[in-house]
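Worked example 2:
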Amino acid sequence: MAYLPQGELEQFVRLVGYPGLFAAVFAETGIFFMFFLPGSSMLFTAGLLASHGLFNVWFLLPLITLAAILGDNTGYWFGTKVGPALFKREDSRFFRKSHVEKTRVFYEKHGVLAIVLARFVPIVRTFAPILGGIAGMRYRTFLAYNVAGGILWGAGVTFSGYFLGGIFPQVDRYITPIILAIIITSFMPLLNEWYKSRAKKTESQPSI
């Protein structure tokens, strides 16, 4: 997930408006090489700006949720059709095998619930629906978790920005630390998995 300074992120959200937000959420959740787009921080900022009257929150919430659901749906069908070819791709500017591996570990640990939880984890949220398609997850099951995750993440994070902006009118002064906290919190599951894998490797190494 890309990090943009407070001013640049707000300017980006203001500039792209409803169509751009829809496209960005759809792309990050549905197109594997768009994992770098700002996710949760962008949604929170959009909600915050909605509390200041820039967006109509009751139009914004279903719009973002729909984009998130359609994006994951696209990723799922991509996984069923051409997903296996991802494992044969060489690393490039837009693709890293390590991203798929991180998502696979996350997916194996959480099962179908990963479709919901992955929404809140950068990079993983882009590749989780693809792996769901590759693994042959039943579409009805995937769709149910996809919708739940789309609502919890898309509407939830956006409404959090709107809610806090309404209660604390000056919260935009602290948007930078808030966004940094969102990013750090989002990466915690990946850091936890990395720490556990490192610990297992250390334990498996024979002592001299």
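Residues 175-204 form the longest helix (30 residues). The chain has one domain: 6-195.
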